[in-house]
TrEMBL record:
Residue numbers spanned by region Disordered: 231-273, 470-499
Domain of life: Bacteria
Subcellular location field: Cell membrane
Transmembrane domains' residue ranges: 74-91, 103-125, 137-157, 169-191, 203-222, 291-309, 321-341, 350-369, 381-402, 414-433, 445-462
GO CC annotation, single: plasma membrane
Membrane topology: Multi-pass membrane protein
Lineage per the UniProt record: Bacteria, Bacillati, Actinomycetota, Actinomycetes, Kitasatosporales
Biased segments, Gly residues type: 235-260, 474-484
Name of protein: Integral membrane transport protein
Swiss-Prot/TrEMBL keywords: Cell membrane, Membrane, Symport, Transmembrane, Transmembrane helix, Transport
Coarse class of the protein's main subcellular location: membrane
Major facilitator superfamily (MFS) profile domain segment(s): 29-470
PANTHER family: ALPHA-KETOGLUTARATE PERMEASE
Molecular function GO labels: symporter activity
Amino acid sequence: MESAEYAEGRGARGDAGSRARARARAVRAVAAGSVGNLVEWYEFGVYGFLATVLADRFFTPAGGGAAEALVRTYAAFALAFFFRPLGAALFGTLGDRTGRRPVLIGVITLMTASTALIGLLPTYATAGAAAPWLLTLLRALQGLSAGGEFGGAVALMTESATPGRRGLYGAWQSFTVALGLLAGAGVATATATLLTPAQLAEWGWRLPFLLALPLGLVALWLRVGLDETPRAGAGEDGGPRGGAGVAAWGRGGGPPGDAGTGTRSRDGLAGGPPGGAGVGVRVVLTAVGRVMGWSAAGYTFLVVLPSYLQVALHADVRQALLATVPADLGFAAAILPAGLLSDRVGRRPVMLTGAVLVTALAVPLLRLLQDDGTSAAAKGAATAAAGAVVGLMAGPGPALLAEMFPARVRWTGLGLAYSLSNAVFSGCAGLIITEAVRRTGDADVPAYYAAAACAVSALVLARGPWRAGTRAGAPGGGRSGGASGSRRALRRGRSERCG
């Protein structure tokens, strides 16, 4: 008969082993989710950074000058965003019903193939009017895959998170946005620097798109080796996986309390009494309002800025691309600390701070870039600051969205909210800003656009109850344990506050 001390020691070793395995699974989930997101935003960044070159190769022969061609290029850019909600609904429904892993494998395959094929497209000079249509078709396929990617990757990472770390784990999704944009800016800048303008226009623009192929293969390898997340197996509400979808949940298909656990939602939105008609739509619209400032400001300062500098301020391609690097660095530097901070003080306070700062600082920061007397160092600091305040919204954003939806509709719900926000406020940013600057001649238009969207987001983030406490049944939050669960949370010192 084994001694009590031996049995206790063996149990402790078993618990330690279980925790180590859980951490290893969580790390692999973060890597698998993050790499796919990096590929997506690398390509989106490359398209934005090389928009003027693509306009010349695919759209200028259709008639009009460079500004009109750039508007057409951004129209194709925006079209992909309007396919995102469709991708979120399609892949989200499949992922909520069949599990995260198999659908995420399909998403990264589609994304990688459509991106690499852009690098093989014939230009207008070769294929005539078919060239812009082929580019637009591939952008639509990218939009479908991107719509499925975000919701699935965020669900994967937050459901795999260790307790008290959902904000940090979710922030990796946004962090890889920064890495993707940095990679896109770096590759595009290197291509523009190492090649002559004629070489860049003739064949050099293809290289950044073709580089997506090996990156996508790495992401595919990581996802093939994934385990399914525990909450995707049967749904953290204990019901069958998949359910009836966001619309049925909104008509009262869910029990009271978020995630179907009988507990109160951290923000009082995802749950509500049974039979609350339309609550699902209300939550999606509230989620869109909370992240629209992130979408608008992120694309304005991180993607549209190079083309704005070329068209409005007459910078050359290399100067414009170099100017975006500090913005991407500031964005990347702020994301993970913002996510970690949100695990301590709540998602909404951190995001609200970022939205208010963008509203207040957008115009002064942009005017620094317009001033010929401002030093290059000051302009770099201004773009870095712009990126950093966007990072305050991007860090907690994924976890905030994940916590607004129960597991059985999480991929669909958060994917729809994020995709709708991006379709309206990101995908149209380049089109709106470029056309408005062309028509009005007002160089402050990008700042007005970002500030207005962030002002609305600030109002939505500030609205509603502010509650504290660990939400049972939330992704990565462990089981609902009543008072004992609360005591465990207090002992950890990681009680997660509702933002």
